[in-house]
Amino acid sequence: MRAAAGLEFAGVSRAFTVAGQARPVLAGIDLTVAPGEVIALLGPSGCGKSTLLRLAAGLDTPTTGSVSVDGRPVRGVESRCAVVFQEPRLLPWRTLHRNVAYGLPRGVTGPAAAAEVDRLLELVGLGGFARHRPRQLSGGMAQRAALARALALQPGVLLLDEPFASLDALTRLRMQDLLADVQRTAGTTVLLVTHDVEEALHLADRVVLLGAGEESIRLVLPVPGARPRDRGDSALAELRTALLTELGVRTLQGRKHA
């Protein structure tokens, strides 16, 4: 597995042209992510969370500023990053084993490739499903396969764009725990886009709250305690209230203090 990589956004802004006018989505992003750190990006729809992920992956280019991985600028599709999207995007005509193998770096072939795919399938709890095709999998299993395929690339940075958004509540909790286990095993740096405050607090070392305005980063909140965390920890409950308040959601606790 490739070593975890650092990620840096320096003065990053991104604007899109709509009807002949520039529409800013991100502005003044200065953020440094340490190797092996897990960062969760929170914020309302349209604040640029997914755009920031695309900039890190080299799927888009900043209007101003720069993005770098391990001190080297991102120019074009970034081979040191792997992306997991909301949908698994598995190839339906391939077995699970071959879908995961599709993510392997060039040059990894033969018995070594097969052994690595087997290892990754075991890592995400799919060791007994190598010969299954995507149509034979549940939603959670398919997303686990997508995670294994991303890890096959041996990324220095794993970019997750709301990967559990389409799953039912119980499967989502299980996938969160799986991601935490996988990250501890692989040690990779993680940038996670989510709308789920509790998910962010459970998984991340820091939560970055994005919003509109001249400075897109509204708040950077360190999450206390080592991972894995107890979802019932009272310290997390206090942070949850603070984040929801920043997002404009009034909680029962917030009303008591109003």
Features:
single chain; 258 residues; alpha/beta; Rossmann fold; six-stranded mixed sheet; four-stranded antiparallel sheet; 8 helices; 34% helix; globular; disordered C terminus
Task: Describe it.
This protein has 258 residues and is an alpha/beta fold. It has a domain at 1-80 and 200-258: Rossmann fold. The protein has helices at residues 49-57, 96-101, 110-123, 139-152, 169-186, 197-203, 234-246, 252-257; strands at 7-18, 21-33, 38-42, 64-69, 72-73, 81-84, 157-161, 189-193, 206-210, 217-222. It has a 6-stranded mixed beta sheet with strand order 6-7-8-3-9-10, with helices on both faces. It has a 4-stranded antiparallel beta sheet with strand order 2-1-4-5. α3 (110-123) packs across α4 and α6 (197-203) crosses α7. The radius of gyration is 19 Å and the shape is globular. Residues 254-258 have low confidence and may be disordered.
Count of separate DSSP helical elements: 8
Radius of gyration: 19 Å
CATH architecture of one domain: 3-Layer(aba) Sandwich
Can you tell me the residue ranges where pLDDT is under 50 for at least 5 consecutive residues? 254-258
Q: By helix and strand content, what is the structural category?
A: alpha/beta
Overall number of strands:
10
Say what the CATH topology of one domain is: Rossmann fold
Order of H and E elements: EEEHEEEHHHEHEHEEHH
| N- to C-terminal distance | 50 Å
Can you give the helix content as a percent range? 25-40%
Described by the principal axes of the CA atoms, the overall outline is globular
Q: Give the strand order of the largest sheet, numbering strands 1, 2, ... along the chain.
A: 6-7-8-3-9-10
Query: What percentage of the residues does DSSP assign to strands (E)?
Result: 15-25%
CATH class of one domain: Alpha Beta
The major sheet is characterized as: 6 strands, mixed
